[in-house]
Amino acid sequence: MRWCVVGFIISLFRDxxxxxxxSGCEEALISRSSSxxxxxxxxTEEEDPLCLVEKHPAAVPDADLKKxxxxxxxxxxxxxxxxxxxxxxxxCFRYISGAQTWPRxxxxxxxxxxxxxxxxDVHEYHEIQRLVLTATHSYQQAWIGGxxxxxxxxxxxxxxxxxxYADWCPGEPNNGRGRKQDCLQMNFSxxxxxxxxxxxxxxxxxxxxxI
Length: 211
Hints:
The chain has 211 residues and is of the alpha+beta class. It has one domain (3-210): Mannose-Binding Protein A, Chain A (Roll), CATH 3.10.100. It has helices spanning 3-13, 52-55, 63-71, 102-111, 122-136; strands at residues 32-35, 38-40, 76-77, 86-88, 91-100, 115-116, 142-147, 156-157, 183-188, 193-197, 203-210. A 5-stranded antiparallel sheet has the order 3-4-5-11-6, sandwiched between helices. Strand 7 and strand 8 (156-157) form a beta hairpin. The two termini are 21 Å apart. Mean pLDDT is 77; it is low at 12-60 and 70-75.
């Protein structure tokens, strides 16, 4: 079990859920109040009333990336990936538009034999951005697989790969306003860079799986 998922469940539900060795932590999602006025109920599709990020996504077009999108053959659909997936660098990516909390997004990716996406260089990040742009016609903010749940400031990918590349926005990650922000969203602000955010917010997300 990856530390991002295990650490999230332990930190949120330490006093409520008994985790058994070998059990699926993702299955232990239960109701929790993460901050005053913010209620997240597992197993429902109810919209978080304070999910301001979801309601006001960054949607600033980038002429250069749009031009690249029209001519790029790097991201392509592949029979090796399956319907709805796009291949790049021997991995398969999929954008899911239905907004979920980070742990539920990770669980949904795992149900498809994938995880939330890890990103390993700027070219890969641009291809993932292009995937989102193609699906939404905007640079929609979305969850990817980074988290520092196990140790604050020590960022990891949920698929266990090395966290060797980052595209943080200026001043990020910062646990903004003193809140515990342990999960990574992409396409933040007009710069379309990375930001740390509370894991209970609901966002679309990008999954990845190996070919």
